[in-house]
Specification:
heterodimer; A: 196 residues; alpha+beta; four-stranded antiparallel sheet; B: 113 residues; mainly alpha; 5 helices; 3 strands; 11% strand; elongated
C-alpha cells in the first residue's frame, strides 16, 4: 500500500504539474478578464487589454498565473483608486468625526446664546439717549456703549439740554452717573428739559 | 494643476523610477521590475497617480500580429507631475530621515581640519 502511494505520487505529481503548467496561461487570462470585470465600467476594457498586454511580457507559464493572481488580489484597491473611493472605515470615521464636530458647534452656540442671555440684557439698536445742547449740537449715547464701557462720554453740560430716551429701566443705574442731567420720568420715551 | 496624492512606499518607489528618466515611457511590468514591486501593488498606485494628473499613459503603437504580442500601456510623468514628484519625494525623505542625523555632506563640529 505504501509503495502504491509513493508510485502514485511519483507518477501523478509531475503529471498534475504538467497539466497545471499547460493550462496556466489560459487560467491567467481568465483570471485577469474576471478581475477587470470588477472595475468600474468605463475602466474595464482598458485594464483588460493592459493586463493582457503585460501578461505577454511575463516569462514562464506558471509565472503568468502568479502575475494574474497578484493583480486579481489587488483589484479591490485598484477599484477604490479609480472610484476615488476610500475604505469603508475611513468613510464611517470621517462621518462620525464630522457629526461630532457639528454637534459640538451646535452645543457651543446654544450654550453661548443661553449664557449671553443670562449675563447681558438685550438692548435696542436705537440710540437710547439723545442730548441736545442749547446751541443745537447733539450727543447720542447708545445704551450698549453705556453698559459695556460703564462710563459716559462728557455731554455738553453748559446751557439747557433736552433729551429723548427709550431706556427701559435696565440702565437706570448707569444713567444715575450722568451728572446734572435729569432722569427720565416714569413712562418711557419723552422729551424733557434739563440744566447743568 | 495636479491633485495631492496619498504617498505610500509603493508610490514613492514608482515615482523614483519614473523620475530617473522622466521622458522615457515605461509599461507596468517594467516599472514593477525597476521599483522591485510585486505586480499587484503597482496598478492601484498607477491609477492613483494617473487620476491625480501626475502621470499620463498611452497605448503602444504596434502591429500586434507582426510583433506576436498584445500592445502595452506606457506610462510617463507629466510636466507638472515631475515637479510634484520631486517635491513629494524630498518631503518624504525629510520625514523618513531622523532629525538628529547630520545632513549629507555636513561635518561634525563645523569646519573640517
Amino acid at each position: 500500500m505504501k509503495w502504491f502511494g509513493l508510485a502514485l505520487l511519483y507518477l501523478g505529481l509531475p503529471l498534475l504539474l504538467a497539466e497545471v503548467t499547460e493550462v496556466a496561461p489560459w487560467l491567467a487570462e481568465r483570471l485577469l478578464n474576471s478581475a477587470a470585470r470588477l472595475l468600474p465600467t468605463r475602466h474595464r476594457e482598458r485594464y483588460t487589454h493592459e493586463w493582457l498586454g503585460e501578461l505577454d511580457a511575463v516569462p514562464g507559464r506558471l509565472l503568468k498565473l502568479l502575475f494574474a493572481t497578484r493583480i486579481a488580489l489587488r483589484v479591490p484597491a485598484t477599484r477604490r483608486e479609480l472610484q476615488h473611493a476610500r475604505p469603508i472605515w475611513v468613510i464611517v470615521g470621517r462621518w462620525l468625526l464630522e457629526s461630532l464636530i457639528t454637534v459640538a458647534i451646535a452645543v457651543a452656540r446654544l450654550a453661548s446664546r443661553l449664557l449671553g442671555r443670562l449675563s447681558t440684557p438685550s438692548f435696542n439698536s436705537e440710540p437710547d439717549l439723545r442730548l441736545v445742547a442749547e446751541d443745537g449740537s447733539v450727543t447720542v449715547i447708545e445704551a450698549k456703549m453705556l453698559h459695556v464701557n460703564g462710563t459716559l462720554p462728557e455731554p455738553p453740560l453748559s446751557g439747557s439740554l433736552s433729551y429723548t430716551t427709550n431706556f427701559d429701566g435696565l440702565l437706570s443705574e448707569e444713567l444715575d452717573h450722568l451728572r446734572d442731567i435729569p432722569m427720565p420720568q416714569e413712562g418711557g420715551s419723552q422729551d424733557d428739559q434739563g440744566h447743568s | 494643476m495636479v491633485d495631492e496624492i496619498r504617498m505610500t512606499l509603493q508610490t514613492g518607489a514608482i515615482l523614483t523610477v519614473l523620475l530617473s528618466k522622466p521622458l522615457k515611457p515605461r509599461y507596468g511590468l517594467e516599472i514593477a521590475k525597476e521599483a522591485r514591486l510585486p505586480g499587484g501593488t503597482l496598478y492601484p498606485a498607477l491609477a492613483r497617480l494617473e487620476e491625480a494628473g501626475w502621470i499620463t499613459s498611452e497605448w503602444e503603437d504596434i502591429d500586434e500580429a507582426a510583433q506576436g504580442r498584445r500592445r502595452r500601456r506606457y506610462y510617463k510623468l507629466t510636466g507638472e507631475g515631475v515637479v510634484a514628484a520631486q517635491k513629494a519625494l524630498e518631503a518624504a525623505a525629510q520625514k523618513l530621515s531622523p532629525s538628529w542625523l547630520p545632513a549629507p555632506g555636513a561635518t561634525m563640529g563645523g569646519a573640517q581640519a
